[in-house]
Design goal:
With 139 residues, this protein is an alpha+beta fold. Helix content is 56%, strand content 16%. The chain is built from six helices and four strands, in the order H-H-H-E-E-E-H-H-E-H. A four-stranded mixed beta sheet has the order 3-2-1-4, with helices on both faces. Helix 1 packs antiparallel against helix 2 (27-37) and helix 2 (27-37) crosses helix 3. The structure holds zinc ion. Residues 75, 84, 86, 88-89, 101-103 line the site of zinc ion.
Length: 139
């Protein structure tokens, strides 16, 4: 399982390189993403169509929180951390063989394809933002 996970994230790095070179996701890249991530990839592509990914970062860009959302749902993610509070991610944790959820994958694809919006926060705003988030997790 760990190996599959490593390979799948290596695939995302390859997809990023390929996107930089070609300015788009090539058919073969989309196909391999689909092969590896399956239904989660389909849902994440759908999410990118209907929703948005916003990155809230501090001025030095060291810390960032992402909001991935559409009209129906919004999830908060931490940059480069494979974790989400959604139902799909509960299935990742239960060991069903899913690698990640559609929100984490959508965030990554948005970053690769330049569809991520960036909002700058001051350090203080960031602290407030994260403490709101911690309250939300506790609930
Ligand atoms: Zn999720």
């Amino acid at each position: 399982m760990a190996l599959v996970r490593e390979l799948s994230f290596a695939l995302l790095n390859d997809a990023e390189e390929s996107y930089k070179q070609n300015g788009k996701f090539l058919e073969e890249v989309l196909q391999s993403l689909h092969d590896v991530f399956g239904e989660v990839f389909v849902k994440s592509a759908d999410f990118l169509e209907t929703g948005e990914v916003v990155r809230y970062e501090t001025p030095n860009a060291i810390r960032a929180v992402l909001k991935v959302g559409n009209k129906k749902e919004v999830y908060t993610l931490f940059d480069d951390i494979n974790f989400c509070h959604c139902g799909t991610f509960a299935r990742v944790l239960s060991g069903e063989g899913l690698l990640t959820c559609e929100h984490v994958l959508a965030a990554r694809l948005a970053r690769i394809s330049g569809r991520m919006k960036v909002n700058r926060l001051t350090d203080l705003q960031y602290v407030e933002f994260v403490s709101d988030l911690v309250d939300y997790i506790k609930e």
